């Protein structure tokens, strides 16, 4: 981020705009929405500027902008549409100790003006650091459509009611009141006008004061394989409401970003072998926060019901008498198989598929190798990096063909994903050579639909190393 977004206080402050033509007028349309004092310097002012001056909306100064003119101003905008003159304006502004912006000139500007969606006092600012104004405009148009036009009124009346709402204890209860207002009751009555909204605020407050203490709850949520777009809507809603998020090491940072900003984020990161936070401690932490009345989101990679030690957590939650729900997620096998363009099951090839783990707490896991070794069987092997040689040895020993396709997918669904197509005979040393850093799933019995492409992507990677 090269530019940091801020909302600058401009009430009763001076903003200087230099220029008398179309560019200056365009900037003014935005600036006159603020409560700033606007001073415009123009040698040949457009008729509209003269009118705005007469209406008292701006102060027009009919001469060149010069040293000392910006002193004490909050910001200077240069909009003369002449690069040399604009550059001089910036120099003067700096000399006066004020930051300057040159319209449509990122290089000369100290700050940039975002695209704005105005539902005053709700303001959405959109910036692309000058990379794609078209994109900013498209996002703006999208938001303009989505945000109800009376949102500004709801926010204004809500703001005036803040003091009254302080009657509710800070935290959960107060937040629930506001959520009820902005997302349920408020939008319903907004069309009936300000009085109706004010009545609703009062009635809602009474209702929330009367309602008892909310009990805590736990959502056991699948975060999916990494791509935030593969989150379920339910998972997003849970993250939106969470007071506490307890997440695993494999949960992608982009997904953690989606949690409610005030939520307490706790890393319960488990490493592949052993645990950095013991399971009992994680169970205790979940229960403790929920008993405090919090909405706890226990966020697990993929689907929480697949190799997630979910049952141990549920037992602890049930023993404490806490309400809970499981929100399924997309498991790594589903994301990975989609990436290689295959199906987990296929008519006349395999009528069942196994989800295996390479190892458990006690070490490498034994499975029904004899059945798996039969032609056409498919298995998705989780946590299979270190177990690769063991799995390979067992399957070959039970008669599987060394030619059986095997595909390793690292970081499925993420931007840095790698697909490595190999065979059972070559699984090791391929796994070791690949030196995988991210989580990986190994498909036994599946090759990428476009094998050539997958192999190409590895050799390109190797060539660049
Ligand atoms: N509950 C998770 C699995 C947890 S076990 C799920 O449903 O996906 C952890 C293992 O999941 C990792 O060792 C790896 O084998 C697999 N895994 C998780 N995310 C992955 C990803 N993005 N790409 C490939 N494998 C992944």
From TrEMBL:
UniProt keyword list: Cobalamin biosynthesis, Lyase, Methyltransferase, Multifunctional enzyme, NAD, Oxidoreductase, Porphyrin biosynthesis, S-adenosyl-L-methionine, Transferase
InterPro entries the record matches: 4pyrrol_Mease, 4pyrrol_Methylase_sf, 4pyrrole_Mease_sub1, 4pyrrole_Mease_sub2, CobA/CysG_C, NAD(P)-bd_dom_sf, Siro_Cobalamin_biosynth, Sirohaem_synth
Enzyme class, broadest EC rank: transferase
Catalytic activity: precorrin-2 + NAD(+) = sirohydrochlorin + NADH + 2 H(+)
Pathway entry: Porphyrin-containing compound metabolism; siroheme biosynthesis; sirohydrochlorin from precorrin-2: step 1/1; Porphyrin-containing compound metabolism; siroheme biosynthesis; precorrin-2 from uroporphyrinogen III: step 1/1
CDD domains named among the record's database cross-references: SUMT (cd11642)
Enzyme Commission number(s) from the entry: 2.1.1.107
Keyword set includes Disulfide bond: no
GO biological process, one term: methylation
One MF annotation (Gene Ontology) recorded for this entry: uroporphyrin-III C-methyltransferase activity
Domain Tetrapyrrole methylase, chain residue ranges per copy: 220-427
Domain Sirohaem synthase dimerisation: 150-196
Family the UniProt entry places it in: Belongs to the precorrin methyltransferase family.
Listed name of the protein: Uroporphyrinogen-III C-methyltransferase
Phylogenetic classification of the source organism: Bacteria, Pseudomonadati, Pseudomonadota, Alphaproteobacteria, Rhodobacterales
Gene: cobA
């Amino acid at each position: 981020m090269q530019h940091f977004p801020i909302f600058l206080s401009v009430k009763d402050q001076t903003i200087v705009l230099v220029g008398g033509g179309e560019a200056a007028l365009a900037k003014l349309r935005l600036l006159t929405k603020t409560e700033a004092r606007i001073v415009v310097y123009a040698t040949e002012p457009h008729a509209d500027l003269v009118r705005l001056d007469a209406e008292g909306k701006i102060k027009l100064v009919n001469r060149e902008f010069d040293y000392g003119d910006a002193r004490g101003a909050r910001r200077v905008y240069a909009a003369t549409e002449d690069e040399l003159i604009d550059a001089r304006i910036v120099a003067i502004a700096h000399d006066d100790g004020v930051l300057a912006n040159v319209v449509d000139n990122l290089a000369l500007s100290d700050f940039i003006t975002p695209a704005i969606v105005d539902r005053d006092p709700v303001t959405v600012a959109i910036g692309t650091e000058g990379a794609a104004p078209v994109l900013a405009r498209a996002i703006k148009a999208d938001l303009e459509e989505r945000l109800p036009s009376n949102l500004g009124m709801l926010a204004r009346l809500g703001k005036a009611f803040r003091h009254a709402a302080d009657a509710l204890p800070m935290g959960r209860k107060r937040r629930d009141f506001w959520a009820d207002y902005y997302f349920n009751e408020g939008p319903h009555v907004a069309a009936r006008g300000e009085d109706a909204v004010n009545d609703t605020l009062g009635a809602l407050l009474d209702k929330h004061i009367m309602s008892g203490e909310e009990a805590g709850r736990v959502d056991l949520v699948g975060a999916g394989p990494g791509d935030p777009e593969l989150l379920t809507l339910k998972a997003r809603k849970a993250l939106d409401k969470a007071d506490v998020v307890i997440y695993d090491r494999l949960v992608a940072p982009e997904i953690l970003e989606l949690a409610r900003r005030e939520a307490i984020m706790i890393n319960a990161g488990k490493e592949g072998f052993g645990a950095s936070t013991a399971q009992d401690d994680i169970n205790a932490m979940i229960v403790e926060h929920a008993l405090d009345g919090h909405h706890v989101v226990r966020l697990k990679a993929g689907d929480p019901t697949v190799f997630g030690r979910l049952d141990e957590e549920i037992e602890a939650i049930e023993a404490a008498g806490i309400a809970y729900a499981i929100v399924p997620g997309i498991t790594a096998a589903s994301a990975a198989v989609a990436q290689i363009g295959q199906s987990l099951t296929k008519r006349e090839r395999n009528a069942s598929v196994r989800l295996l783990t390479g190892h458990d707490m006690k070490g490498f896991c034994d499975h029904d190798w004899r059945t798996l070794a039969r032609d056409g069987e498919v298995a998705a092997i989780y946590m299979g990096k270190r177990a690769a040689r063991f799995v390979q040895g067992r399957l070959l020993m039970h008669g599987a063909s060394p030619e059986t396709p095997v595909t390793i997918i690292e970081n499925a669904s993420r931007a840095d994903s790698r697909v490595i197509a190999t065979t059972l005979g070559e699984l090791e040393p391929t796994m070791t050579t690949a030196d995988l850093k991210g989580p990986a799933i190994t498909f036994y019995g599946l090759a990428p639909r476009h094998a050539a492409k997958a192999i190409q992507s590895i050799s390109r990677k190797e060539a660049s190393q």
